[in-house]
Design a protein that fits this description.
The chain has helices spanning 17-24, 41-51, 102-117, 132-140, and strands at residues 2-3, 8-11, 58-64, 70-77, 85-92, 122-127, 144-155, 158-168. It has 182 residues and is of the alpha+beta class. It has an 8-stranded mixed sheet, with helices on one face. The longest helix is centred in the middle third of the chain and has 16 residues, at 102-117. The protein is globular and about 40 Å long.
């Protein structure tokens, strides 16, 4: 478990599956900018039992508050095969937990962790230009806007531009500066 000042990150456990699947299916609470894709529950659970949602090229950790309740998730995945890096994504599940700094702290820790354990030089994130909350998180974490991928995402019935942000290994904060030691 990676413990920060206000949140912790940990991998998914079997007893988290029902809760996690429930929040992933709650379209109303996923936010205006989340993709609306959904995986059938048997496939969702099969993926967990085969991989634990953690592999060399993709993985998910849960974001927990001080009471160790699940408030969100953060993931990495290989989006462009020839890039030496991964893409990251994050979500806070309930609207009442948004805007409290949890995502920024989780993203800083997650980015530092990935640079600590993976032989990569780059992480990237994409977001719709109007998603000011995600943009603010990325900028707080040191991600730099690289440009726009024109009409790259089909979202809510139309093709939308996507902003591409990145952070390099030497630009990231150090993991030991972000986590609490016991």
């Amino acid at each position: 478990m990676l413990r920060g000042k206000t949140i912790s990150l940990r991998t998914v456990r079997e007893n988290d599956l029902d809760h996690l699947y429930s929040v992933l299916c709650d379209f109303e609470n996923r936010g205006a900018y989340d993709t609306l894709g959904i995986l059938a529950e048997p496939l969702f659970k099969k993926d967990f039992f085969e991989t634990g949602f953690w592999q060399d090229n993709r993985g998910t950790m849960l974001i927990l508050n001080k009471e160790d309740s699940i408030i969100g998730s953060i993931s990495f995945f290989k989006s462009i095969p020839y890039f030496n890096g991964f893409e990251v994504g994050f979500v806070i599940h309930n609207s009442e937990d948004r805007g409290k700094g949890y995502t920024s702290e989780a993203a800083n820790i997650f980015v530092a962790y990935l640079f600590e354990v993976k032989e990569i030089n780059r992480l990237q994130a994409t977001t719709l230009p109007e998603n000011t909350a995600s943009i603010r998180v990325l900028e707080k974490c040191g991600f730099i806007l690289e440009g726009k991928a024109r009409k790259a995402m089909f979202h809510k019935g139309e093709y939308k531009d996507v902003n591409v942000y990145s952070i390099l290994r030497n630009e990231s904060k150090k993991l030991q500066d972000l986590i609490l030691s016991k």
